[in-house]
């Protein structure tokens, strides 16, 4: 594919586009990228939630087939270029530095996701402030909301897909519930908006808030200690589902999040989803252990005689009671809502 020549990226005034998507993101991202011209004057950095064992090649193939820009996986240490699309590799966060250097890291998951949307958006806001344009597309839960707030607080532009057309509207809706965005539009209108924004003159840079800078450093694994997290919020009597550590509660206005000192971070919705998943895992382990105990007691009852046999048989029956109760909980016909579904 022929790529048009683009002027060198101006790190002082050039703009950076960051995009986050989850469920339904393949079609949404393809529809967005195909609107951008060959000479698009900004780098585009993408995070889409995919499983750790996926390659992301299906998405890249779709973007390269239908779009005009060259798309590829981000490479650690690479300097981004205008007119290129960079996709976060599976099971890795994608971050950026002020000099345009890409960081591909195995930092702690945020909102149960790696790659996470929030870490990319936050690092972009810290590095480029009001030169950043953030876009949230279709997906479950609310990854990206905190990152979009960071972009807005640093003077950037916020664009959200109209939830009415999103295949999975949770992510756009949750973002809209927490901040007043600059644009809430169908994907088909985003290309024109980006073209207009690329022609704007970026104003004077805002001061980057200290708390956003600290969180960005934690994601880079530069900071990961108690004083850093203590400065962001207050300890709460909850444990991190990711590592079992203590959580700190952070809130700006009505938006509440939680973070542990090793780097895991959650919104209230994603924390509840993670706790629910851990409870289910624990219940299945308990079911297996009770079934193994019952099988062993049944074997003892058959092999032994007299009081030992009778006692083992009684304990096997008691174990069956617990097995039935746990199985009933696990198999209960409790229809989940979107907040309980995996990303």
Automatic annotation (TrEMBL):
InterPro entries xrefs: CheB_C, Chemotax_prot-Glu_Me-esterase, Sig_transdc_resp-reg_Me-estase
Classification via Pfam families: CheB_methylest (PF01339)
SUPFAM superfamilies named among the record's database cross-references: Methylesterase CheB, C-terminal domain
UniProt feature coiled coil, ranges: none
Catalyzed reactions: [protein]-L-glutamate 5-O-methyl ester + H2O = L-glutamyl-[protein] + methanol + H(+)
Entry annotation: catalytic residues: 22, 49, 143
Enzyme Commission number: 3.1.1.61
Enzyme class label: hydrolase
One Gene Ontology term, aspect cellular component: cytoplasm
Record carries keyword rRNA processing: no
GO BP annotation list: chemotaxis
Keyword entries, A-Z: Chemotaxis, Hydrolase
Record-level Gene Ontology MF annotations: phosphorelay response regulator activity; protein-glutamate methylesterase activity
Domain CheB-type methylesterase positions: 10-201
Protein name: protein-glutamate methylesterase
Organism (species): Mucilaginibacter paludis DSM 18603
